[in-house]
Every structure is written in C-alpha cells, then in structure tokens.
Model the fold of this input.
Amino acid sequence: MKINCLKISFILCFVIFQITLFSGSVFAQVTIGGDEQTIDYANPVEYEIGGIVVEGTNVLDKNVLILTSGLTVGEKIPVPGEKINKAIENLWDLNLFSNIDIVATKIQGKTIFLKIKIQERPRLSRFSFTGVKKSEADDLREKINLTKGKIVTENLIVATKNKCQEFFVDKGYLNCKVDIDEQLDSLKSNSVTLVIKVKKNKRIKINEIQFEGNTALSNGKMKRLMKETKEKHWYNVFKSSKFIEENFTDDKLKIIDKYNSKGFRDAKIVMDTVYRFNEELVNIKIKIDEGRKFYFRNITWVGNAKHSTEELNRILGIKKGDVFNQALLDQRLFMSQDSRDVTSLYMDDGYLFFQVTPVEVFVENDSIDYEMRIYEGKQAIINKVIVMGNTKTNDKVIMREIRTKPGQLFSRADIIRSQRDLSQLRYFNAEKMGVNPKPNPVDGTVDIEYTVEEQPSDQIELSGGWGANRIVGTLGVSFNNFSTKNFFKKNAWKPLPAGDGQTMSIRAQSNGLFFQSYNATFIEPWLGGKKPNSLSVTVYHTVQSNGVKKSTGTRQSLTTTGVALGLGKRLKVPDDYFQLYQELNYQHFVLNKFSGFINDFTDGISDVYSYKVNLTRSSIDAPIYPRKGSQISATLQLTPPYSYFRKDSLGNDVDYGAWTNQEKYKLVEYHKWKFSSSWFTELTKNLVLNTKVGFGILGGYNKQLGISPFERFRLGGSGLTGFNLTGTEIIALRGYDDGSLSAFGGATTIAKYTAELRYPVSLNPQATIYGLAFAEAGNSWSSLKYFNPYDVKRSAGVGVRIFLPMFGLLGLDYGWRFDEVENYPNMKKSQFHFTIGMNIGDL
Done:
C-alpha cells in the first residue's frame, strides 16, 4: 500500500507541475549548507554528478544499488529530468523497498551531489501455524518453502496463502480459509513474523454422481471406473469420498478410455459440473456423447523387412470385424505385459531404433482401415554398460547379474530381466531402480546405464522374554552382503567387510539349562566368480532338557548336532527361472532319558545321513512385495535304504520286530516329498492376490520299521511354536492353536491351501508395510492312506506385514477358525498370531 501511495503522490506532483508550466514559471529554492540554490522546474539545468551515496540499507550492497539505479559519477543529467525518474523506477523493480527518494545534498556550480534514500522491506524472522495438526504443519512447511531472512512482499504473502489453501483443497477441504498476520519482530530490526491462520472447516464429500447420455455403460460401471471419485456410503471403506479436482479429472479420462476399448472411438464428455448439495456435500453431473461404435476392417503393414506380414498379424491378434479397441491396439503394438507385442519382437532382436506408427487411412461408416507404418532401422550393438549409485556393493556383484553385455545385440527383454535379478538381491531399492539407454544412431551402438539406490540388507535379532519362570534370550546377526576376501583388510571394516554378496549369519538362543541353540551359516552365491553356482555351509547345535544339571543324575535331555553342505545351480532349461539345489546333511541325536518321544524311545543315539534335492522356479518381480510371477518348489529328501541291505547271520531278512528302539533308529531311514506353488496376480494397481497350495509326504522303506519319528509335520498356529529338534516342520494355519491339527508325534502327510489379498501401506524400502486379508484351509494325517485333500480345517482373517531391513519381515494376524478340532474342545474361536521371517510356517 505504501508503494501505491508514493506513486500516486508522484503523479499528482507531476500534474501540478504541468499545470503551472502553462500559467507561468515555477521556481524552488533548496537550502544546502546555509546557501540558497534556486531550481527552476520549468527550465531544467544540466548538472554533472559529483557523487552518489546510499542511505537506509542494512543488508544490501550500496555499490550494487547505485549500479542498478543507472546513475554514475561524472555523468551529466538534467535536473529535474527523466534520468532521476528512471533511477527510481529501476530501484522499485527490485521489489526490495517500501520507500525510495533521491535528493540533492549539495550543488557547487554545475556539479550536483545526490543521496539515494531507501527503506528496505522487512525480512522474515520466523513463521507459525494455527488451526492445523503438527503433521499438517510439517507438510505445509515443505510446500510453502518459507526461509528465515526472506524478504516479505505482497506477492510472497499471496503465494503462501494460495499454497496453503491448495494443500487443504487437495485433501477435500473445499471451504478452507487462510489468513496471514504480519507482525513486527521486537527482537530484530526491520524483521517481521508471519502467523498463518488456517480454518479448514468441514471436509467436502461427494453425495451423488449422476450420468447422462450413457447407454453402452451402466451407471454402476461408470462409478466403478472412477477409482478416486466415490460417493459417500457406509460401505466405502477403502476409498475416500472426498472431492479432489485432480482425481476427478483423471477419473474422467478413465471413463473415456473404457469407451474407447468398447469401440466408441469418438466418445467424449461434453459437460460436467460440480454443485453444492449442502454445506458438506457436493453432487457431480457428467454428460456423455458416446458417438458411434466402430470396428477394425483392413490392416496393412508397410516397411517391414525383418518379419513377415503374417507373423506381425499373428502377434497383433486383431482380425477384420473385431470391435475397435484403442487400448488393445496400443498394447499389442507397444506395451504388452508379457512382452508379446510388435515393439518387443523387434527390440529383443537389437532393433533399438524401431518405430511403428498406426495410421487411420480410411474410415467408412463404422469401419476403420489401418496402415501400420514401420521403421526398422538397424540393429544396435551394446557399447558400454555402466552402473551408477552403488556405494557399498562392488561393481562385479551387480555386473554378474546384468544380462546386457558389451558386444551383444540390444535386448529389451534382457534389460527387464536384469532389473528383476538385481531386485532379488535385496541390496537395492526396487522402487528406485532405473535403466537409461543412451543410443548413438550414427554408429548404431548404445550405452546402457543402470541406476541403483543402496538399502540396508543386514539384519539383527535381539530379543528377550520371560516364560516358564525363565528368561529366554535370542541374539542373531545376518550379514547379507558380506565379503570374506576383505576380512583381513583393516580399511574394509566399515563397520564390516562388505560388498561381495556373500551371506554370513550367526544365531544363539538360550533360557539357561532348559534350552540352548547355536547355529551358523555361510553362503557364497557365485562359487568361483564366473557362474551363478552357490555354496552353502550350515552348522548347528541344540540342547533341550528338563533344566537339571548333569551332576544330579536326574537330567533328561535331547541333543542335536548337525552340519549341511549345499550346492545350488541356476538352470537354463526349461528356462532360466529354474534353480537346482542339492544338499548333503548329517544329524546326530543323543537322547538321555528324554520322555515324550515316539515309541518310548528315551535313550540312545541316532544318526541321519540324508540327501536333499530341490527344484524351484521363481519368476516374481520383487522379493518383498511381489505383484506378479510365481514360485514353484519340488523337494525330495531321502536317506539310504539301510533295511534293503541288512541280513542276519544266516543271510535272511532281518526281523525288526525283535529289535530295540535304539537298534531301529541308530541309522534313521526315510524319504520325504514336498511340493508347493505360490502365484501372484495384480488385480488393480498394487492390489495383489496371492494363492498358494502345498503338500508333504513322509514315507519309509520297510513296513516293520515303520515311518521315521524324525522329519515329520506339525500343523496349526503361527508356525513359530516349539523347538525344531527332530527335524519336524512346523506349518502355520492361522486361527487354530499351535500344532493342534497334527498328532502329538507329528504327521506324515499334510495339505494346505491359502489365498491372500494384499495392499501396501508403504513401499519405502526402509519400512515396507502391507495389509492383508486371508482365507486358508489345511489338515494333516498320520498315514498317506487316510489322506483326503477335501477333509480340511478352514479359517479366515486379516493381518499386517512390516519389513524392516534390520529385522526382516514381521507379521501380525488375527484369524477366525470355522471348524472344531477333536481333543481341543476349549480352543478359542479366534486368536492373534505373530510371525517372523519370509517363509517360517509356510509349506
């Protein structure tokens, strides 16, 4: 307001001067140092500037201001005149001052000395909010971008006000009011504080969405297409009904896209309006012109030399007479999810510069003729492969997972697969991974730049608790990007030698004399460094007892010691998603008056020598939150069939009925078969359906010996209860008590079916969180002859999963059971379950 008043005063003075010029001469006297100097405004006098000084600035550079004014010492100017006026305008244009004057301090003959008197605009010392939550205030600070020391102008006030209003309008507060109070800061000169007062009022929601002109799509279908613009209903749990203009615009495009896919090429929204229903609700009305329904007719190809017209037509999959579908046409030409499109056909064969342009060449009545104009270009050779962003992981670990190699033909499929393989390492943020091809059309080459963002991959497990009058403690560490090569290099400990992609984990658990467990694992994923052949070594030792010291003579215990050596290999047939893993395993069991084991086997020693082979196929796109792909696993674990080779002293078959349990189980024999399959389907963006099925069978070689008491199955609960001392697999079935769906000694046959609907809350790699709703069923049997895949116990519920890089995947589920269980008459109808890890409790 000060600026406007000054300008008005200046204009009024100028008008008065002009009037007096017509009425006679105008004179003014300026007193300088006691001498009177006369200035005739009607007859300006030319003076030479003898000096310029600036008064009133506290922060700004005076020399810069003089330079900005356009006045220079030694310059001759008329006084009064346009040069002085222009200098004032130049300084006003900086938008830094609230008042500007240029006065003469002294006149000596034809020399004039000038002073530029300014008053700086106030600067911001601090600002605050009223009427908002702390979290909202934090978000607003980032949006308005106010900083200490910033010059406070009218534009700044208006811009800040608008940004605050936009922030709350986007959240559905259409009636939001924002006022900003400017207050002088008594602690700092020429400074002000801003108080941003927000009155959100009530959030505006959508009462009703009305459609007009639609016949091909029903009102219900149209409303379902609008994913972010929903009517207010009590059952609308997962989507808000608040009105947001940006979302409404996007949803209108979804409606048109759907019409295009139904053949209505010319469909358009001719009118839409949003009007108030009351103070808290609005109605939306949309009028549609569907237009005519069109069909594909003749499709011809021009410019194709590499692939025949018949082959391209087969990939396109559109025939004469098919309903026009713009989305399908684009998908088959450019962006099919399964890479069965024309562009992928060429780009997977090196044609990086390939282009296809669909052109409507003729439209007759309801039929459209298309000409597919192809520019094949020449095949591109990969020149360089560059990795950016890895601060911890060595280049060689990344490069060995990348399938695009220098000298090879460019392949889009290899780039997509390389991204997927890098995400499976879990060293990088899958959401931030990128690829930047840099083509050089002149020489037909391309450089490929992969960008990654490191994320924490090491994990620590530290827990303690109180149970059965004992303290239970667990300490475990897992280094998932370890480097043994740098183990003895002092400078590599930051804090640990890392970057070579190896895994080293150590875990200890104890509650004193009752239970102790120790295990260590080392995995080298690329044995020899040239091929993806993994080596794994595991050693473990566990003791369970009645808590009595050995010296008392009444101690009861079961001790398990084992070692496993495994080799893994990535296969190329049937495809390179397959992996083969083989393992040799030795377990040594020592029973000392240990009651509760099967067949009254309380004392003795058992040894298990087993061989395990596991064939898996995994094509999931991400390890933590997969959206598509599958995981299939088939496992066979078996021991030598000792009973086939045993003979008595006379060369006859052994009568095992006369053997003691120690003799029977000195060398344990069994064969164990497992199969599981898990499929991921993205229903809508990030909403994923995961369906799983699993079966397991434990068998023996000799009927007299029966089936091994080791390596059995226990079903029910969270999958975490109990100590796995005898190789028994603990399988989860939520909603039921732990182990309640298996006999005491464990089952030999098991089946389980699961369906989970997942939706993420956060995909941040530092804390990935998703909710789920599940339905599952399963059962276990003492013998294969009782197996019935339809005789199952059912449950359903909801849960949440939280992945923290340091602690792994944590889960909490609440399950309801639908069936009764024999021998468990007091089991709760519903209960909570806590889980740790990716695969614990899964078949």
